[in-house]
Amino acid sequence: MKHQSGRHFLQIPGPTNVPDRVLRAIDGATVDHRGPEFQEMSKEVLAGLKQVFKTRSPVVIFPASGTGAWEAALVNTLSPGDRVLMFETGHFATLWLNMAKRLGLDPVLVPGDWRHGIDPAQVEAKLAEDKGNSIKAVMAVHNETSTGVTTRIAEVRKAIDRAKHPALFMVDTISSLASIDYRHDEWGVDVTVAGSQKGLMLPPGLSFNCVSDKALAAAKTAKLPRSYWNWEEMLASNKDGWFPYTPATNLLYGLRVALKMLVEEEGLDNVFKRHDRHAEATRRAVRAWGLEILCLNPAEYSSSLTAVLMPEGHSEIRFREAVLERFNLSLGSGLTKLRDKVFRIGHLGDFNDLMLAGTLAGIEMGLELTGVPHKKGGVDAALDYLVHSETGGGRKRAAA
Amino acid sequence: MKHQSGRHFLQIPGPTNVPDRVLRAIDGATVDHRGPEFQEMSKEVLAGLKQVFKTRSPVVIFPASGTGAWEAALVNTLSPGDRVLMFETGHFATLWLNMAKRLGLDPVLVPGDWRHGIDPAQVEAKLAEDKGNSIKAVMAVHNETSTGVTTRIAEVRKAIDRAKHPALFMVDTISSLASIDYRHDEWGVDVTVAGSQKGLMLPPGLSFNCVSDKALAAAKTAKLPRSYWNWEEMLASNKDGWFPYTPATNLLYGLRVALKMLVEEEGLDNVFKRHDRHAEATRRAVRAWGLEILCLNPAEYSSSLTAVLMPEGHSEIRFREAVLERFNLSLGSGLTKLRDKVFRIGHLGDFNDLMLAGTLAGIEMGLELTGVPHKKGGVDAALDYLVHSETGGGRKRAAA
Amino acid sequence: MKHQSGRHFLQIPGPTNVPDRVLRAIDGATVDHRGPEFQEMSKEVLAGLKQVFKTRSPVVIFPASGTGAWEAALVNTLSPGDRVLMFETGHFATLWLNMAKRLGLDPVLVPGDWRHGIDPAQVEAKLAEDKGNSIKAVMAVHNETSTGVTTRIAEVRKAIDRAKHPALFMVDTISSLASIDYRHDEWGVDVTVAGSQKGLMLPPGLSFNCVSDKALAAAKTAKLPRSYWNWEEMLASNKDGWFPYTPATNLLYGLRVALKMLVEEEGLDNVFKRHDRHAEATRRAVRAWGLEILCLNPAEYSSSLTAVLMPEGHSEIRFREAVLERFNLSLGSGLTKLRDKVFRIGHLGDFNDLMLAGTLAGIEMGLELTGVPHKKGGVDAALDYLVHSETGGGRKRAAA
Amino acid sequence: MKHQSGRHFLQIPGPTNVPDRVLRAIDGATVDHRGPEFQEMSKEVLAGLKQVFKTRSPVVIFPASGTGAWEAALVNTLSPGDRVLMFETGHFATLWLNMAKRLGLDPVLVPGDWRHGIDPAQVEAKLAEDKGNSIKAVMAVHNETSTGVTTRIAEVRKAIDRAKHPALFMVDTISSLASIDYRHDEWGVDVTVAGSQKGLMLPPGLSFNCVSDKALAAAKTAKLPRSYWNWEEMLASNKDGWFPYTPATNLLYGLRVALKMLVEEEGLDNVFKRHDRHAEATRRAVRAWGLEILCLNPAEYSSSLTAVLMPEGHSEIRFREAVLERFNLSLGSGLTKLRDKVFRIGHLGDFNDLMLAGTLAGIEMGLELTGVPHKKGGVDAALDYLVHSETGGGRKRAAA
Does the distance separating the beta carbons of B379 and A380 come in below 8 Å? Predict the structure, then answer.
């Protein structure tokens, strides 16, 4: 592969485009994580995160990928053999299921077609059946990165409440947090799992648990062995701005800047509106091309990515390779069940109308280049929407 | 003005998009400009520049804007009252003319309509008239940044030769070097003037004179006072990799990387081909919109920028402001005579197909947004050309 | 605290001073971790790491702190209730012990005075007693970051061999790898644990397991639950340059550069020699001040840090605060048992003679400033040694 | 030469150590220099500079080295053949003299021994002799970078006043501004010349003229040809935050941060006090070594650098080479008359006590290494002063 001129278009659904300001912050000299300068920063960051999760509960930061935060959610709250209710909404939900099995839990799996989110009615039914409250937790992926389908978390919460079931509610927001509206407290979530490399506009390497009082109480009796992921020591240290082991200092520098950009400068509501607009514009392009969106229920469309079905007999792998080679554009691949069948367009993170236009242009030209049957006019349809739809307020200018 | 999310599209015809690798190089710790590490770098850079100018003559680097390199060309070779033949091809040719007057030269101006390059026949005629060889230099702007019109330098050289006139030949390549084919030696140019912030993909702050033997000989008798711009001391110091006064160290770090990218990795021929393709795609978009390209002669189209006439009664200023505010895209303005009449699209420097697609999308939406009469389909026309036209080879991958 | 001018002296025993080139590499745009550019880099990095561990076995990279790599070593090889032989050499050995307990292992602890490394004779004796081979692993910290005492790993290996005991041998090299000679294969280590933020000259956020065939075989039957830390999936993915979950892309960029600097440019033997010299110079300073080095056995002196006892009745906490406030120098604190009793001088990572001179000057002035009884001349003693001792070869110059 | 580990000690008297924050600022994406974001920055920077020059007059910024700002001072205010009073205080004063000659001026040179600043009495005497006021300007170098000798500018001003002479007063502050107290308005200076790469803590590439009303008036009638350096157009454009030709955008980003650090965070008085302390500590080290300081008059000691005489028969060139090779420390060389006779220690810019300690340690070890006769104890003498002398306030911490 040859390196091409100009900027790479990183339109996988994460890691996302990291703003230059965040990269420059990460590039700062490493400091003493037991010194006053670090302490001040970590207090600021721990406070800022609460605004993004919309919570008054503590948020734990792990020097780890999102997968680590999945593990932390499980080992802190559950005991070997515990039953947990899980839903086959896609590749990542399946990976979380596999993790639960490996850790010795006993998942109850509700199968799915990878084209819908979790059905709240099924949640209610499953829990209603569980007379003895043997199910200890309900696990949901808010935004399935492999399918571009969201689950309506507020509705799932209501279903749990209707079933009057005491199970913990754990939600993976890895590809939704800071892109799609999410409310840890209002929606009664017990453990929210998140990562740095999507809506938070950072490189990968940090992950998060937002932890309710109920989850903390569960941790007192949970028997899965844990040490690195242990909330207790972490929260005790965090109180004064410290960490029980060496934190990923430089990524935290970046997090401080990213939080400032999202919360203070652009404002979360504008961030969500921006993602909604780009998702709608993308779907209009897909429809204009005559291609099919994987997500079947418009109420479950993802605002952070769109998965598109390749026409029968055409390889998404070859298509993406051609697009990367010729147009310097990375798109997401089809995963496991969807291998070679869908490609995924990431439109989340630090992004704007013209980056989207370039992305869609690359796809439209790529379809042409690789002989994938399609109609022209996808880019036009997107532009037509973008120019006429109302934008959120822009980001406020940063102080020097 | 609010700061918007995502990357800014800097599509003025320079300064251009600076590659991240170049910015990171500039960000290196400043070193002793009298030490061995600096010496090695400056030798490498001085050698590399010759390949870009296609010359065996020395290239002088000034810590200055391109305007400084204009002044250097004049003060090193000419004496007070010298007649120089100049051509009104646009705003920058006019600025150079004004400079010549201020420095006490006596320019002979051939008027122009700002929509054509220099007519070689006129050059021949003017020089043929000058029986006493009172004209000491012919000054040409290779690529008029204000108009998007190029002058065919090889043809002007032939015209000078046909007139058998001994005048020096000085060419401003500020917005063409490393974007449009240019050959200092083959075309018999005596002083080539260039700057860092266009095809060389650097921030502004460096400028260049490439100097023929004939120009060096002229310097021996030239009487305009000079000190900062003096080639003699500069060339004497440069021989060993030194400079007579403090050079702009950190920009030179960037220059080293930029030369590597242009000459070794992508290859100059591929660089030129890339600019040609983007210029042609841009013109197809402009025609599809039903707008008029300022440059009237297709043989003189610029590959680094395209100036577009606004329809009568519409303000390019308002248009560009709207495009900046809404789409985070900077376009070039109309200068002096062309004020509020044309906007300019820069498609030079570190650039690719999808960045161009985003740029044209921003313009097409901007025309819609500000009610400028146009037809749709400009972006489509460009994409149709881009996907079907042959690309040059990509840049070879950089070593780690 | 006020921010002071000039560079901070980060002389804690890690995180260490990160070279500018490494920081700039980390600052690169995040790429697709499923794309060819990433794949090429990860293959290069995985191969380079083997040279640093001196092994032909695979090295696993976790997006985690060193503490995570401790956990990985345990959960991949051991089963609940397994006995492991551990040694109280200092704070970090104790933390590893606590982790083993939490994960359900049954550590046999050999107490220690925090001023010596592991006694090979004790290892032999303890294993010889264990007739039934109930001890499944011997755990050693190569370089105790809390005390500045090393354990002679080759001798411990010989002791295990003399006892003809089949236990796995696991070694923590978090603060020794790439600072002090270490040989995974030659010394018959089964799991080596390491982190990014010390000798590898990176910010914190990556950690490592180097895994012998014997350890891999043990992993087949080990029953501790594991998922994030699971070697099996990791090694399967790594074969082709991939990772089973999102890796910490940008820190890997830095690792690539750091490996190049250590292995190709300076050479590991020169790196070790440099650390030895700086450690010896530091000890001479300490002795000249009339202070006591914590490590009692010269054969066990650490080359990456030196812990110094404060005179009775004087607080190291107040001393370090004063030094930070007045001289912009961070020193390591006394940990748990040693709290307020020792301060630690880090002299590892990207470091040189004059940085050491500045560090020792800060300490000498700090002792004066805070009224700690001492003799002058520590800096002089160090300089005298530095100027007269033989240096290793310097780092070879990097290509541009 | 081999590249050494750790940080380079750049202790030439400029370019100086550039703070990381300034380098990171310079590394920002280049913007449109005709757009609102740039305009806002340039207004801020132009205002901030006035505080550093202590003036209400305008400060002009050239994309050029300091040498360019010398030329600007002359060509804007003088006419061919004008007499100017100059003083041979050192190498740079001599270069300025040569420039004046080349530009067609008629300098009256007062010879000097390179070990003293300008004698105010001589200024008065020379001007008093000039009954016809044929001398148009008095030129002074505030701090001679080649000798480490300052001229007392306030005293020179008084001398001019006593002589009641109308000559313009021009002062080069290239290596003093923002390191040593300087007051453009209070001291009645007409043109102050400065550069970016010394006290302003930037890489080279920007230079400055601070211009009094009297100088502006002189510009109206001055007849030296000028264009690039022309104040008139520059000041007209600057009023609205623009520049008449492309400014060095990225260096201006750095300037904004540097001004913030100097004026708001540390405060100029603290900056001056810091330089005074480091200069005094350096002189104490030099005296302890038994070496001779070039500057003979303590009232004229420079706070930004110290020039040291090598003992007869010893080469400063060999000494500096050894120090660079072995200790990664760059010192300043002896220039022209002083070639191979003095070395210069820069202690200006972004600097602190421990960086100075490292620098002096490198010198003391270098003297030993190269067999230069000296006494030990220079570092000790410096430390003794540093720990007991009162520091200014530190820099206030920057907002995130």
Answer: yes
The residue count for chain D: 400
Determine the distance from the C-alpha atom of residue D188 to the mean position of all C-alpha atoms in its chain, rounded to a whole number: 19
Are A205 and C204 an interchain contact pair (Cβ–Cβ within 8 Å)?
no
DSSP notation for B290-329: T-EES---GGGB-SSEEEEEPPTT--HHHHHHHHHHHH-E
Residue B247, both tokens: 């050079």
C361: which chain D residues are within 8 Å (Cβ-Cβ)? 353-354, 357-358, 361, 379, 383
- Count other C-beta atoms under 10 Å from residue A1's C-beta: 12
DSSP H or E segment with residue D193: strand D191-195
Q: Please tell me which residue of chain C has the smallest CA distance to A330.
A: C32
- What pairing do the DSSP bridges indicate for beta strands A305-309 and C149-150? unpaired
Is residue B201 within 8 A of residue B349, CB to CB? The reply is yes
pLDDT (average), residues C167-178: 98
Put simply, the answer to whether D333 touches B34 (Cβ < 8 Å) is yes
Distance of CA D78 to CAs A265, B228, D9, D73, D234, Å? 51, 17, 41, 9, 18
Give the DSSP H/E element, type plus range, for residue B135.
strand B135-141
DSSP secondary structure of B167-178: -EEEEE-TTTTT
Report the range of poorest mean pLDDT among D21-25, D54-58, D392-396: D392-396
Q: Helix crossing, A353-369 with A378-388: angle to 10°? A: 170
Q: What would the pLDDT profile of D339-370 be if each residue is shown by its tens digit?
A: 999 999 999 999 999 999 999 999 999 999 99
Mean pLDDT, to the nearest integer, of D105-116?
98
Rounded to a whole number of angstroms, the distance between the first and last alpha carbons of chain D is 40
pLDDT band with cut points at 50, 70 and 90 for residue A393: low
> Which chains pack against C, by 3+ Cβ pairs within 8 A?
A, B, D
Q: How many CB atoms lie within 10 A of CB B242?
A: 16
C384 C-beta neighbours (distance < 10 Å), count: 18
**Which regions of chain B are under pLDDT 50?**
1, 397-400
Rounded to a whole number of angstroms, the distance from the CA of B199 to the nearest CA of chain C is 21
For A257-373, where are the E strands, in sequence order?
Answer: 292-293, 305-309, 329-331, 342-346
Listed in sequence order, the residues at least 6 apart from D260 whose beta carbon sits closer than 8 Å to its beta carbon are A400, D48, D398
Q: What is the rounded CA–CA span in Å between residue D379 and residue D358?
A: 9
Residue range A317-332, pLDDT digits in tens: 999 999 999 999 999 9
Query: Residue B220, Cβ neighbours under 10 Å: how many?
Result: 8
- pLDDT-based confidence at residue D395 (cuts at 50, 70, 90): low
Residue D399, pLDDT score: 42
Q: Determine contact: B358 vs chain A, CB below 8 A.
A: yes
**Predicted complex ipTM:** 0.96
Coil, helix or strand at residue D170: strand
The pLDDT value given to residue C392: 74
Q: How confident is the model at residue A148 (pLDDT cuts 50, 70, 90)?
A: very high
Per-residue pLDDT at D396: 54
Residue of C nearest to A12 (CA): C32
Compute the count of residue pairs across chains B and C with CB atoms less than 8 Å apart. Answer: 22
Asked if residues A387 and B365 have their Cβ atoms less than 8 Å apart, the reply is yes
Separation between Cα atoms, residue A390 and residue A387, nearest integer Å: 8
| Cβ–Cβ contact D176 with B under 8 A | no
Residue D136's φ and ψ, nearest 5 degrees, are -95, -20
Tokens for A207, please give them: 């992950």
Which pair of structure tokens corresponds to residue C346? 């880090």
Whether pLDDT at A1 is above 50? no
B7-36 residues touching C, CB cutoff 8 A: 20, 24, 27-29
Q: Which residue has the higher pLDDT, D400 or C272?
A: C272
